[in-house]
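Read as chain and fold; for instance:
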Amino acid sequence: MKSPETNNWLKYSGIGTQIAIFMLIFWWIGNKLEMRFDFKPWGSLTGLLLGAFIGLYELWKLINNKK
């Protein structure tokens, strides 16, 4: 049986990757919107900020979910 300390470490181990993936996906969407509507650099910047916000929100939900 694993100790509770090991489970806590595993619970938070992938959050950095998750935030990076959210940021990359929303940057890509923003970049595509820039190319279609020609409003550089606001699409990429908005996508990066939105991805970071969603990733940090997921982290906040994970931390506050104390079961």
About this structure: The two ends are 18 Å apart (CA to CA).
